[in-house]
UniProtKB/TrEMBL annotation:
Listed PROSITE patterns: ENGC_GTPASE, G_CP
Region of interest (Disordered), residue spans: 215-236
CDD domains, per database record: YjeQ_EngC
Protein name: Small ribosomal subunit biogenesis GTPase RsgA
Binding, GTP: 146-149, 198-206
Organism name: Vibrio cortegadensis
Catalytic activity, EC: 3.6.1.-
Subunit and partners: Monomer. Associates with 30S ribosomal subunit, binds 16S rRNA.
Chain sites annotated for binding Zn(2+): 279, 284, 286, 292
Functional note: One of several proteins that assist in the late maturation steps of the functional core of the 30S ribosomal subunit. Helps release RbfA from mature subunits. May play a role in the assembly of ribosomal proteins into the subunit. Circularly permuted GTPase that catalyzes slow GTP hydrolysis, GTPase activity is stimulated by the 30S ribosomal subunit.
Cofactor note: Binds 1 zinc ion per subunit.
Domain EngC GTPase, chain residue ranges per copy: 107-254
Positions of the CP-type G domain: 94-256
Amino acid sequence: MNSNLNLSHPMSLQQLGWQPVFQQQLTLEDYESNVIARITAHHRSSYTLATEQGELSLPIHQNQPLMTVGDWIILDANQQFLRLLDRQSLFSRKAAGSKVAEQYISANIDTVFIVVSLNNDFNLSRIERYLAMTNEAQVESVIVLTKADLCDDVEAKCQQVQNLDPMLMIESVNSLDHTSVQTLNAWCKLGQTVAFMGSSGVGKSTLVNTLMQSDDQETGGIREDDSKGRHTTTSRSLHCMPNGGLLLDTPGMRELQLADCADGVSETFSDIEALTKQCRFSDCQHQTEPGCAVQKALESGELEQRRLSNYLKLLREQARNGATLAQQRAHYKQLGKMYRNVQSESRSRKKGF
Ligand SMILES: Nc1nc2c(ncn2[C@@H]2O[C@H](COP(=O)(O)OP(=O)(O)OP(=O)(O)O)[C@@H](O)[C@H]2O)c(=O)[nH]1
Ligand SMILES: [Zn+2]
């Protein structure tokens, strides 16, 4: 398979990730004169689209529906927006500071790899939370347990995860090892759209880099050659994988962490949250305080210790992931600044300043 496929070039619908289920949404006119396009990037005022004729840009207009990377749309022969095709799957989250506005993160992903490392990050409750998110988005998920090379009870841990659900697909890998990562290629076949999620440091970037490397090409990564043969980081969010699959990688997808699941935690542990409202002190830590309704429920057997521990743990993780998110944003900002500085420096040099 050619690893130099680039979404800016003309590609077949199948190569762009078209699935047979979308076919039934097409009209005769679509076949005859309209253009089928997939959104490959979402910019401030436009979308980048991939089509069978090559890349297009579509200005964002207020009478278009809310759309996101991965969406399939129909344009007329003059490349004007006609309609959005019904989605197979959608990741969304509530916009910060708002209770109603939804932000769309990605659409029409076939498989999400939930990446969890076999060392520090290994946590069944977290896996359950990610599964809740992928189920919500209606996406098939595969649990990828990384750092198998650093773990001496891989089998036992895989079994623990399998106990959550006998139907769950689980792969353990060493993300740095090309051969080990090959098992994931079963989900990255021609036209399959995949994405990665998981906490910071579990090995998502490493996995992506290893998977993007074909045997004959060392560059890997989500970089593409510009006309001068240099590597430039593309602003596109969909990338062709050596095996024919499409990788959907956006900051939004990477940031989809437990921090976005506060509601989910409250909902899952609504019994405990109800108890906390009955504690004598509003800032009760539910440890040794007098009049603690949570401790009382523990003593009476109404509440299981395991469940309480899990709840407190998820709350702590949420706080930690929230911090990581802020740190990540600062990091990206810094990178952007550095990149701009390098660019302006090289421009100055060219001008002979
Ligand atoms: N030994 C070993 N190290 C790994 C493995 N996967 C990742 N690492 C290392 O773990 C560190 C973190 O990996 P990353 O790929 O940056 O993790 P990430 O999930 O992309 O992290 P963020 O970019 O913060 O979201 C790096 O030093 C990797 O080399 C693995 O399977 N085995
Ligand atoms: Zn209490």
